[in-house]
């Protein structure tokens, strides 16, 4: 029997016991043929460094089912994929075996195993894997079998588990809180006699209660608190000093101190403090998780609220929010509009730009009856489509947050929490170890007591939770006021802004006009032609012309082309239509006049122009009144027709720049950033997309038009434009609250540490001090954020 135990080996891949010696390769033992096959696949592709990240990181292959023939059925496969075209398919799988850094590393190297895989992206928290692959070289079934072969079989359910965001929790957080809470309550109960004093004949119970406390501490440390040790160890392996390290160290030291005191009969230990620490940390994590899930749910369905889509009902066209778009609705998608839901093309010439989905910028032609997936942008004439799937808001949100299209590596700022956390941890450890070494030469016990006390009093959970709680409250207030920020980082970015750049048409002007005049004599047929050309565009001037002409018969449009910043060229029947600025229509620049003109030419015959007097948005004077706190600039693609009118808002002529192309706008913002200025760009999301992306904070203003661009960091409903100064001030208030909460925590720590380093911290004092800072900080941030919002009249 002893020899058998000595010969017992474990699987090199998954760590299970090897019950047979059959599966051996390169002197490495495997428990089954599956684990051996995985190692061979990794070895053949030179990916064995997978095993360097964790010891035995793989999942056992003895119970996997490699039969995935049902995925070859087109009706089933179509329900699983996110997007497909003639070359590329994108699919998202739920992988329950994802559990560590080695999993992330291996799955994101999948393209090395099979070149048909273009890229893989892992969402560790959701255990989701998004894969883009060439379906001509690799079928969906083969892809799943490949994942199965390397030990990461997807959990595929026809209940669409992926798109439901994995509502079932996988971390057993509630069970861990319940276990910690149960043990905490019992340890506190057993500690009361110690706190209130024991009579002589009761002293014998002291040691018995101490051992019971240790017994209750075991599940708290090794079950409820296990996650902190795992996180700290993984971060240390990656040479990252996170805030989980001092938390894990504090838990370990508290447990060791409790065992030491009870074993040596030198005290009751800190079992109640230990259990309370883990309980409150997990409780804070639970509240934070619930808060973010609530915010996430709201933002899935509310962050796109300003973005509407036009549908046809009984030949009448009306806009509806995306949340009301349902299967069977017939929607109209115009030039530069994003397709919000999977739909069938019913009418029109579709040229779809899928760059937000695939990264490929060349438009793809679609034929009548073909399915077009959500996320594409129409680049030609207006098309009519019938919705076949509900709006996948979470998928659109994923596109918005997709780092491949929105990451601003040059402009990305480090948040306050990121700046402070590392230094806080280092300073805390220095003080703790300094206290320990200071007392060691004279009093080892007091040195250990001082070390423990420092970790208790300076618990970093207050710092870890202050920013998330404050930012969550801030996002809720912004959402309530129809201002939708991508994430909490955008709040701090807004607070750093010192320069505001605004587009004109569609941004500081509304889609309506107080005066539209026509200096042309048009027949009814010509009006219908102009209407049919302009109805395909979402440009504010095109919308005004359609509104001015009223409802006309929509004529077939051929060779539709909209030139950004210039106008529209299209063939309608046998007629050639040009409508736009003077350079496009007349071939020469406009003379300087005090009115915006849209010229019209049909069949090379100049017919006249539409003249516009813009209505500026309510609250523009409040924004321009932000000077001198902020530098203000106006960038417009139009000529300087309205320079005189705009001088009442922009006093300095150097603030206004006209006839700016999209590239000019981007270059202007870059030039400001080179001077060290933090720039916020406010545009309408059309020809401003490059400037929005280049800026430190890009805000797309929307008026129930589906012109949202993922290049922006936020969406502002046009009705809330007048609140922008309040939003700017509230963002500064939010950051100030975080700074002040850190100051409160710092003062508390300094006072507590001055007592803790003496080594005289009693278990009762520790049990009171431990949760006090966390409760104080969370209460302060929640209340202060609410009061700041009320002060700015946002609630």
Number of domains: 6
- Report the total helices: 28
Q: Name the overall outline.
A: globular
Quick one: biggest sheet?
7 strands, mixed
Mean pLDDT: 78
Number of strands: 30
Q: Kindly name the structural category.
A: alpha+beta
Classify the helix fraction into a percent range. Answer: 40-55%
Q: Into which percentage range does the β-strand content fall?
A: 15-25%
Low-confidence region ranges: 1-7, 61-66, 158-169, 297-306, 403-411
Gap between N and C termini = 74 Å
Radius of gyration: 32 Å
Strand order of the largest sheet: 18-30-29-28-19-26-27
Compact summary:
With 795 residues, the protein is an alpha+beta fold. The protein has six domains: 2-53, no CATH class; 69-156, Alpha-Beta Plaits (2-Layer Sandwich), CATH 3.30.70.100; 173-291 and 413-468 and 766-781, no CATH class; 301-401, Calcium-transporting ATPase, cytoplasmic transduction domain A, CATH 2.70.150.10; 470-508 and 617-732, Rossmann fold (3-Layer(aba) Sandwich), CATH 3.40.50.1000; 511-616, Calcium-transporting ATPase, cytoplasmic domain N (3-Layer(aba) Sandwich), CATH 3.40.1110.10.
């Amino acid at each position: 029997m002893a020899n058998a135990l000595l010969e017992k080996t474990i699987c090199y891949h998954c760590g299970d016991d090897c019950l047979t010696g059959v599966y051996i390769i390169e002197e490495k033992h495997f428990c089954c043929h599956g684990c051996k096959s995985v190692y061979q696949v990794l070895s053949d592709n030179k990916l064995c460094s997978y095993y360097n990240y964790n010891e035995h990181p793989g999942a056992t292959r003895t119970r996997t089912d490699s039969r995935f023939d049902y995925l070859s059925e087109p009706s089933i496969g179509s329900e699983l994929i996110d997007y497909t075209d003639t070359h590329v398919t994108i699919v998202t799988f739920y992988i329950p075996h994802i559990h560590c850094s080695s999993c992330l590393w291996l799955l994101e190297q999948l393209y090395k195993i099979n070149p048909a895989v273009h890229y893989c992206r892992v969402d560790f928290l959701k255990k989701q894997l998004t894969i883009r692959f060439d379906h001509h070289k690799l079928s969906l079934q083969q892809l799943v079998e490949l994942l199965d072969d390397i030990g990461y079989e997807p959990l595929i359910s026809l209940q669409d588990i992926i798109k439901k965001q994995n509502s079932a929790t996988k971390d057993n957080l509630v069970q861990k809180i319940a276990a910690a809470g149960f043990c905490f309550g019992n340890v506190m109960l057993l500690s009361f006699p110690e706190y209130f004093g024991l009579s002589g004949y009761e002293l014998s119970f002291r040691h018995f209660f101490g051992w019971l406390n240790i017994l209750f501490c075991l599940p708290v440390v090794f079950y409820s608190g296990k996650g902190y040790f795992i996180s700290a160890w993984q971060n240390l392996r990656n040479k990252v000093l996170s805030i989980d390290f001092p938390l894990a160290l504090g838990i370990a030291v508290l447990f060791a101190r409790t065992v030491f005191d009870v074993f040596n009969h030198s005290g009751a230990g800190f079992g109640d403090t230990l259990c309370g620490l883990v309980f409150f940390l997990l409780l804070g994590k639970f509240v934070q998780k619930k808060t973010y899930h609530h915010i996430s749910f709201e933002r899935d369905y509310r962050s796109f609220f300003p973005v509407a889509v036009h549908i046809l009902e009984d030949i009448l066209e009306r806009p509806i929010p995306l949340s009301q778009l349902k299967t069977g609705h017939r929607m109209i998608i115009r030039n530069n509009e994003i397709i919000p839901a999977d739909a069938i093309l019913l009418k029109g010439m579709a040229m779809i730009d899928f760059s937000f989905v695939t990264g490929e910028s060349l438009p793809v032609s679609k034929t009548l009856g073909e399915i077009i997936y959500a996320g594409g942008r129409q680049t030609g004439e207006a098309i009519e489509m019938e919705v076949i799937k509900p709006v996948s808001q979470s998928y659109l949100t994923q596109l918005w947050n997709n780092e491949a299209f929105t990451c601003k590596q040059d402009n990305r700022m480090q948040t306050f929490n990121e700046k402070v956390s590392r230094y806080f941890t280092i300073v805390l450890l220095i003080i703790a170890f300094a206290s320990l070494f200071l007392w060691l030469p004279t009093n080892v016990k007091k040195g250990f007591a001082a070390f423990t006390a420092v970790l208790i009093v300076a618990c970093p959970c207050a710092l870890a939770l202050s920013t998330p709680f404050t930012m969550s409250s801030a996002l809720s207030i912004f959402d309530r006021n129809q201002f939708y920020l991508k994430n909490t980082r955008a709040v701090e970015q807004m607070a750093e802004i010192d320069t505001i750049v605004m587009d004109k048409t569609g941004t500081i002007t509304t889609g309506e006009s107080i005066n539209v005049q026509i200096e042309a004599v048009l027949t009814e047929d010509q009006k219908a032609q102009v209407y049919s050309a302009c109805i395909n565009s979402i440009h504010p001037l095109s919308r005004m012309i359609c509104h001015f002409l009223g409802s006309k018969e929509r004529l077939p449009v051929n060779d539709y082309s909209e030139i950004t910043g210039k106008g529209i060229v299209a063939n309608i029947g046998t007629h050639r239509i040009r409508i736009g600025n003077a350079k496009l229509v007349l071939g020469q620049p406009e003379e300087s006049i005090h009115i915006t003109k849209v010229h019209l030419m049909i069949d090379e015959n100049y017919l006249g122009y539409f003249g516009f007097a813009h209505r500026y948005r309510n609250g523009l004077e409040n924004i321009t009144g932000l000077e001198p706190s902020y530098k203000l600039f106006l960038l417009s693609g139009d000529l300087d027709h309205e320079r005189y009118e705009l001088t009442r808002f922009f006093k300095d002529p150097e603030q206004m720049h006209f006839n700016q192309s999209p590239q000019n706008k981007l270059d202007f913002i870059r030039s400001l950033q080179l001077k060290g200025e933090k720039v916020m760009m406010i545009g309408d999301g059309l020809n401003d997309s490059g400037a929005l992306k280049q800026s430190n904070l890009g805000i797309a203003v929307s008026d129930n038009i589906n012109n949202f661009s993922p290049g922006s960091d936020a969406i502002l409903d046009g009705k809330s434009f007048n609140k922008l100064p309040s939003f700017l001030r509230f963002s500064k208030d939010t950051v100030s609250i975080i700074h002040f909460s850190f100051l409160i925590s710092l003062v508390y720590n300094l006072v507590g540490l001055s007592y803790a380093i003496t080594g005289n911290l009693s278990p009762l004092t520790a049990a009171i001090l431990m949760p006090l800072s966390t409760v104080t900080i969370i209460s302060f941030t929640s209340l202060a954020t609410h009061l700041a919002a009320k002060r700015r009249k946002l609630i």
